[in-house]
């Protein structure tokens, strides 16, 4: 998605007609007639294009639908209603998962959506989780989960959004809802470039249905390879167009990875790690039916950086709200839903009732004021005065702040263990502690994993090993950096226990949890030393007292003790993590040793069936849930909830290509 365009998304400008029908002021048209809403969904997008019959004969485990406008969500919800009925009545059929992608440039507010959907009580069980997860107006993709159904809500200009979707070689979508009622008489929204995007994103044989029977629409779809036919809906004198993609006449624009990084249909995978990334990836994989074996080098899970008692959860934002800011903002919304979903079955300690980022000096003020230039939704971030800072925190601070209403703190160590427990309940996860992976090597299409006492073969291998990723020869050329961080655990006192909200400054301070607060964290670059350091206890307090000056409540905080947790953060120079297939450095070096032709389309060789998720830095709580979901989706050849620009920015070989573009040889 282009970063030089306006990345702000506004709620739909709506009104209610004198018949209490929802009316779009932007498109100068009604969304639909209440009595016709479900009927149109059934007749146009389901019945006449034989959706149920398609599901009954489908041989894959998943089915992908795209819709050109989410609108009130009625088409999506009714399709979910039909799919749940299909699953209940056809348990032996191969089809088990539905993926639904909707593109919406003017989303309704949650309150309007709630009011509108009350008209169809038969959908209530689906409306509730939709409203619970419904995102803020942030550009890009927002992934929502409904049991066997996954919804990707793409907010923004539809052509920008469609061109941002990651496509596999064969395309992505099996079925299209092309809804013209959502754009009223502004049919210029759908032009030649738009139809070309439909073609590129569709699989051969994909079906399409539209309520626009004009010759221009019919000819445009025919030109793309769809065999279109016009039909009448029973006795209602309503005409529709339906069709099927019989040939692909345009070369697909692939995503950032053209190489087939997965070359097996096996669902046997080893995940190496034991922290937040490992937990989230394991759960995402078992939810897709993978048999996961988790190997952890430690005697217990959630040690190291994931072993903190409390950690702050809030997004990393900037003035441009560019690709990096979008990644962290949308990941934050996903992480917040993720926390609540895991907690509902496997409780852990957290409080997401707000967080304050303090204006503690001129440098911080300039940085935070730049964030406000992005004009992001107030429900995400807003500036508050000194007075409101004190009211919100319930303690004397005396500084302006950025207030993140949906942010807060959670217990990383508890959360990681809860996620693993949730994954183990499926019976598909096996956890092996005290198993340090020494090396691994290719054995035909599989991997031989060499541990201290044994060698075990797995068809697929995923590394979530932070800085220890560099221990393996296949990954030793990745430009990762270590940053030691020590978090101080401090006992509460009568003044400190009043703190209601996490404070972020040069470090952070959390509210009370089990009689303790967390204060941190130090940041020591380029060291893997994980031993406790008494001086760093004092350093953490000094950060607090330097930023919050001359406040009595900071003085009694006692740090002359060894209650702390030390973790080694794994960082990258551009703040983008590494995710996806692991490229082959040695083959890349050989391939480009005699050429200087490198650009954005350049492809590199990959290690087949080897995947990586690392470099999450100090914001792993924010990004791990969505990135793990994305990697599992990629491994399983499903739609990805990330834009192409995000994926390109997180490719493991990005720095290698940067060197080559500058004419520098790869020498590692």
Q: Quaternary status of these chains?
A: single chain
Tell me the span between the first and last alpha carbons: 33 Å
The shape is: globular
Q: How large is the radius of gyration?
A: 26 Å
Number of DSSP-assigned strands = 32
Given as residue ranges, the uncertain stretches (5+ residues, pLDDT < 50) are 1-5
Architecture of the largest domain, CATH level 2?
Answer: 3-Layer(aba) Sandwich
Mean pLDDT: 90
CATH fold call of the largest domain: Rossmann fold
Whole-number tally of structural domains: 3
Structural class estimated from helices and strands: alpha/beta
Question: Could you explain the architecture of this structure?
Answer:
- The protein is an alpha/beta fold.
- 30% of the residues lie in helices and 25% in strands.
- The strands form six sheets. Strands 16, 17, 18, 25, 26, 27, 28, 29 and 30 form a nine-stranded mixed sheet that branches.
- α9 (276-286) packs parallel to α16.
- The longest helix is centred in the middle third of the chain and has 23 residues, at 323-345.
- Mean pLDDT is 90; it is low at 1-5.
Summed up:
The strands form 6 sheets. Strands 16, 17, 18, 25, 26, 27, 28, 29 and 30 form a 9-stranded mixed beta sheet that branches. An 8-stranded mixed beta sheet has the order 6-7-5-4-8-9-11-10, sandwiched between helices. The chain contains 18 helices and 32 strands.
């Amino acid at each position: 998605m282009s970063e030089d365009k306006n990345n702000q998304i506004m709620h739909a400008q709506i009104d209610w007609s004198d018949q209490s029908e929802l009316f779009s002021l932007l498109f100068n048209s009604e969304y639909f007639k209440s009595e016709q809403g479900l009927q149109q969904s059934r007749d146009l997008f389901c019945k006449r294009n034989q959706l149920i019959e398609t599901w009954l004969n489908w041989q894959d485990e998943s089915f992908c639908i795209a819709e050109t406008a989410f609108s009130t969500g009625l088409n999506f919800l009714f399709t979910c209603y039909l799919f749940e009925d299909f699953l209940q009545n056809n348990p032996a059929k191969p089809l088990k998962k539905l993926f639904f992608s909707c593109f919406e440039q003017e989303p309704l507010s949650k309150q309007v959506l709630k009011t509108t959907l009350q008209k169809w009580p038969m959908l209530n069980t689906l409306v509730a989780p939709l409203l619970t997860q419904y995102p803020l107006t942030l550009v890009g993709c927002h992934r929502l989960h409904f049991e066997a159904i996954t919804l990707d809500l793409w907010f923004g200009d539809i052509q920008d959004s469609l061109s941002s979707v990651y496509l596999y070689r064969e395309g992505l979508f099996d079925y299209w809802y092309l809804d013209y009622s959502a754009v009223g008489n502004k049919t210029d929204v759908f032009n030649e470039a738009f139809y070309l995007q439909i073609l590129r994103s569709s699989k051969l044989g994909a079906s399409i249905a539209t309520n626009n029977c004009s010759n221009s629409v019919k000819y445009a779809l025919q030109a793309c390879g769809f065999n279109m036919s016009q039909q009448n809906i029973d006795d209602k004198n309503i005409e529709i167009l339906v069709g099927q993609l019989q040939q692909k006449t345009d070369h697909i624009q692939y995503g950032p990875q053209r190489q087939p990084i997965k070359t097996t249909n096996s669902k046997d995978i080893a995940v190496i790690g034991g922290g937040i990334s490992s937990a989230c990836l394991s759960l995402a994989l078992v939810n897709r039916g993978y048999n996961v074996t988790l190997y952890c080098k430690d005697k217990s899970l959630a040690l190291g950086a994931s072993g903190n008692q409390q950690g702050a959860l809030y997004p990393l934002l900037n003035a441009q709200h560019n690709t990096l800011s979008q990644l962290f903002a949308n990941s934050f919304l996903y992480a917040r839903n993720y926390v609540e979903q895991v907690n509902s079955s496997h409780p852990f300690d957290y409080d997401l009732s707000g967080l304050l980022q303090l204006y503690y000096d001129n440098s911080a003020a300039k940085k935070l004021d730049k964030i406000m230039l992005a004009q992001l939704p107030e429900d995400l971030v807003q500036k508050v005065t000194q007075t409101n800072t004190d009211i919100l925190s319930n303690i004397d601070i005396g500084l302006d702040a950025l207030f993140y209403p949906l942010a807060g703190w959670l217990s990383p160590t508890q959360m990681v263990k809860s996620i693993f427990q949730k994954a183990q309940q499926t019976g598909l996860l096996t956890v092996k502690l005290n198993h340090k992976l020494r090396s691994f090597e290719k054995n035909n299409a599989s991997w031989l994993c060499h541990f201290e006492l044994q060698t075990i073969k797995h068809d697929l291998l995923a590394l979530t090993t932070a800085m220890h990723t560099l221990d393996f020869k296949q990954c030793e050329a990745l430009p990762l950096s270590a940053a030691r961080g020590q978090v101080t655990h401090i006992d509460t006192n009568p003044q400190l226990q009043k703190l209601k909200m996490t404070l972020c400054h040069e470090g952070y301070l959390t509210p009370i949890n089990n009689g303790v607060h967390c204060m941190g964290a130090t940041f020591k670059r380029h060291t893997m030393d994980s031993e406790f350091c008494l001086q760093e206890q004092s350093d953490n307090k000094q950060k607090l007292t330097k930023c919050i000056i001359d406040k009595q409540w900071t003085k009694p905080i006692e740090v002359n003790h060894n209650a702390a947790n030390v973790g080694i953060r794994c960082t990258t120079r551009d703040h983008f993590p590494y995710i996806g297939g692991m490229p082959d450095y040695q083959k890349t070096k050989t391939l480009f040793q005699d050429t200087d032709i490198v650009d954005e389309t350049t492809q590199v060789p990959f290690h087949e069936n080897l995947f990586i998720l690392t470099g999450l830095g100090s914001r792993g709580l924010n990004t791990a849930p969505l990135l793990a979901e994305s990697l599992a989706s990629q491994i399983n050849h499903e739609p990805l909830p990330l834009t192409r620009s995000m994926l390109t920015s997180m490719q493991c070989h990005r720095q290698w290509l940067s060197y080559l573009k500058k004419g520098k040889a790869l020498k590692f």
